[in-house]
Design a protein that fits this description.
single chain, 88 residues, mainly alpha, 69% helix
Length: 88
Amino acid sequence: MLFRVAMQFAMFPTELEIPDEELTSRFNLMFNIMRTFMLIIAAGFCFLFIWIIRRLISPPIKAEFLGSGEEAQIAEQGAEGEPVNHTP
């Protein structure tokens, strides 16, 4: 995704050379809006993927996929190596 955004900046010209100045300014405005929108979409997808990855590596999800036994106990441990208490 980030590669596509970088290629967009590399492939599109920064300034168009059209004889009509009003048309040139309109095209430049359109390109700037497109670039801004693509940056926002790329950042949104990056944050979405980060959120999904963090959810999938959380201890409850790990325990669900690992099943019972020693692996589940390892997955249930917190970052400090202490068991996580699930009771309120």
